[in-house]
Specification:
2 domains, 362 residues, Rossmann fold, 7-stranded parallel beta sheet, 6-stranded parallel beta sheet, 17 helices, alpha/beta, binds uridine-5'-diphosphate, binds uridine-diphosphate-N-acetylglucosamine, single chain
């Protein structure tokens, strides 16, 4: 069975790594890798391939950045001839980015079986581009692999046939568990003059936060208070950097003496940064899951989460973007008023192997 695996953006690389490894080790599966080029360059792409041992992509579509319509269309235009040439039996897509829906749509239109890993997650917020990508991809998928029970229930509620849905665990956590030892050797704390447990890490890239100067200003009001207590390290996403550069907020950010703004870091350094932090402040999807396994308190700076298990039994609290609410939650972290996380079902490092077994057997 020839499977064309698709990865395009930073979180995709972390999810595709264990899948490629499991497929390569499974008799009867012949994996291929297509990089769409949605994310590119050393910091957003190359470092992940090197550090996670992902093989060179068989094809790189090199689409780069553009508006949603143009980027999605360019990926589709470039992916169709690749899929026709390689006569694949299935296309596998991960996550919820534009590359996911673009390649998924190309596959089903060519009558090629579509496999979606991380299916069924729902924020129920249709203003999020990712929610549209998730709903559409799931609708046209033939096999849907879920990370948590809420995903299974969402899919059934949407009328997806039960026999297509499998709860398998979380491939992002496969990578985390496999990489912990290597990440322990990272020198990033020394490099940034940070002390174990005495700093927080911040990431921001959701359009609803970083494309709206009023929201961004509210977040920085909270950060100004938090940085009086502990240093904040902020590996800044290119979308956020671009937005800050053109705004009056840039001067204010520069004045926050204990906020270290750095380029995005590679996976191993980031894992080390998260593992040793007092807390994580983020609007990322994947980081809510990683901190649950690492046992690090996570403040999710969004109104909702598509990963409810991380808030229900994990270390995540969805606090929104209100300055006072963020500060209140930060005080709870300082006082130790935080839920001790439990490990979600099947987040045991074996998810990719389960997926390979199900595909090979079916
Ligand atoms: C994308 C995903 C989002 C995911 C995030 C992970 C969609 C709709 N969004 O958001 O779900 O959480 O990736 O990081 O697919 N840029 C660079 N270098 C890069 C990539 C982007 O400079 O390697 C800049 C460009 O100016 C670009 C902007 O960042 O226009 C946004 O990139 P894009 O891939 O469109 O969306 P993200 O915000 O990265
Ligand atoms: N990450 C990283 N370096 C960084 C920021 C994040 O390696 O500077 C990793 C993080 O550990 C997680 C993934 O990138 O595995 C999350 O990606 P992102 O937040 O961009 O996307 P999302 O999960 O929100 O779609």
């Amino acid at each position: 069975m020839k499977i064309v695996n698709v990865a395009g953006a930073r979180p995709n690389f972390i999810k595709i790594a264990p899948l490629l490894e499991a497929f390569t080790a499974t008799a009867g599966i012949e994996p291929m890798l297509v990089h769409t080029g949605q994310h590119y360059g050393e910091r957003m792409s190359d470092l992940f391939f090197h550090q996670l041992g992902i093989p060179e992509p068989d094809v790189n579509l090199e689409v780069g950045s553009a508006s949603h319509a143009v980027q999605t269309a360019e990926i589709m235009k470039a992916f169709e001839p690749v899929l026709l040439e390689h006569a694949a039996d299935a296309v596998l897509v991960v996550g919820d980015v534009n590359s996911t829906i673009a390649c998924g749509l190309v596959a089903v239109k060519l009558g090629v079986k579509l496999i979606h890993v991380e299916a069924g997650l729902r924020s129920f917020d249709r203003t999020m581009p990712e929610e549209i990508n998730r709903v559409l991809t799931d609708t046209v998928s033939d096999l849907l692999f879920c990370t948590e029970q809420s995903g299974v229930e969402n899919l059934i509620n949407e009328g997806i046939a039960e026999e297509k849905i499998f709860l398998v665990g979380n491939v992002m956590i496969d990578t985390l568990l496999k990489s912990r030892e290597l990440a322990a050797g990272s020198t990033i704390l020394d490099d940034l003059a940070l002390r174990q447990g005495e700093y927080v890490v911040l990431t921001l890239h959701r359009p609803s936060n970083v494309d709206d100067p009023a929201v961004l200003a509210r977040l920085f009001d909270a950060l100004e208070v938090i940085q009086d207590d502990v240093p904040i390290v902020f590996p800044i996403h290119p979308r956020t950097r671009n937005n800050l550069e053109g705004s009056s907020l840039a001067r204010r950010v520069a004045k926050l003496g204990k906020l270290q703004l750095i380029d995005p870091v590679g996976y191993l350094d980031f894992l080390k940064l998260m593992s040793s932090a007092k807390a994580m402040l983020t609007d990322s999807g994947g980081i809510q899951e990683e901190t649950t396994i690492l046992g690090i308190p996570c403040l999710t700076l969004r109104q909702n989460t598509e990963r409810p298990i991380t808030a229900k039994i994990g270390s995540n609290r969805v606090v929104g973007t209100d300055t006072e609410k963020i500060i209140e939650a930060w005080r709870d972290i300082q006082a130790g008023r935080w839920q001790t996380p439990r490990t979600p079902e099947l987040w045991d490092g074996q998810a990719a192997k389960r997926i390979a077994r199900i595909i090979a057997g079916g």
